[in-house]
Amino acid sequence: MLTNSRLVHQPHDHGRCISAALTRANDLCSEQKVRMTTTRESVLRLLWQSHQPLGAYQLQGQLSELLNKPIAPPTVYRAIDFLLQLGLIHRIPSLNAYIGCPFPNSEHSNLFMICSQCGSAAEVAHNTINSMLQSASDKANFTLQSQCLELFGLCPQCSEHREDTDNEQ
Ligand SMILES: [Zn+2]
Ligand SMILES: [Zn+2]
Ligand SMILES: [Zn+2]
C-alpha cells in the first residue's frame, strides 16, 4: 500500500489537507482528553501551511507574526513536544525540521520522500517495509523501537520540470 506521496507532490486542493489535519487533531485531543491550545493549534497550522518541513527557529518567527506578539523559544518547543507526543507531527532528523503527519494515531512506517529541489516532503505509508525491517531486526536479535526513513530525490513536479529543461538544451 502506497498512500499520499503522489497527492502531496502534485497540485492539489491544499485547503483540504489543512482542514482534515485540524479536524484529526481536534478529534485526537478530545479522545485523549488533552487540550488543544491556541499556541498548539497555531504551530500545527503553520506546519500544515505547505508540505515543506519547518525548523523550530522558523516556527518561532512565524508564530510570533501570526499571534502578533513575541513568542519565546520554550513556548515553541513545548507546543512541538505536545504535537510530537500525540503523533500529530514528526521530526525529520536530517533536516532538523518538523512536518505534519497525515495519519496520526495509527501504526505506520515513518517513511518520508523529500524533494531535494523544492524541499517538499511527503509521508508515505508502506506496509511491506515495516515487516521487512522487523524481520531484519529479528534476525539480528535487535529490538526495534523506532524508525525513520528519509528518501531524497525529485518529486514528480520537479522531475517534470527538469525533463522540460533537458529537452530545451
Ligand atoms: Zn496538501
Ligand atoms: Zn506519520
Ligand atoms: Zn520538488
If you had to describe this structure to a student in words, what would you say it looks like?
It is a single chain. The chain is α+β, with helices and mostly antiparallel strands. The protein has one domain: Winged helix-like DNA-binding domain superfamily/Winged helix DNA-binding domain (Arc Repressor Mutant, subunit A), CATH 1.10.10. The protein has 7 helices and 5 strands; from the N terminus they run αααααββββαβα. A 3-stranded mixed sheet has the order 4-3-5. β1 and β2 (97-100) form a beta hairpin. α2 (14-32) packs antiparallel against α3. The longest helix has 19 residues, at 14-32. It is globular. The N and C termini lie far apart (38 Å). 24% of the residues are buried.
The name of the CATH architecture is Orthogonal Bundle
**Taking all residues together, what is the mean pLDDT?**
91
Domains counted in the coordinates: how many? 1
Q: List how many beta strands DSSP finds.
A: 5
Query: Which regions have little confidence, pLDDT < 50, spanning 5+ residues?
Result: none
Q: Helices and strands, in N-to-C order?
A: HHHHHEEEEHEH
Strand order of the largest sheet: 4-3-5
Please give the count of helices.
Answer: 7
Straight-line distance between termini = 38 Å
Shape: globular
Bound compounds? zinc ion
* Fraction of residues in helix: 40-55%
List strands and helices in order, with pairings.
Blueprint: H1 5-8, H2 14-32, H3 38-48, H4 56-67, H5 73-85, E1 89-92, E2 97-100, E3 111-115, E4 121-124, H6 127-139, E5 149-153, H7 156-168
Parallel strand pairs: 3-5
Antiparallel strand pairs: 1-2, 3-4
Helix pairs in contact: 2-3, 3-4, 3-5, 4-5
This protein binds zinc ion (ZN) (3 copies).
One zinc ion binds next to loops.
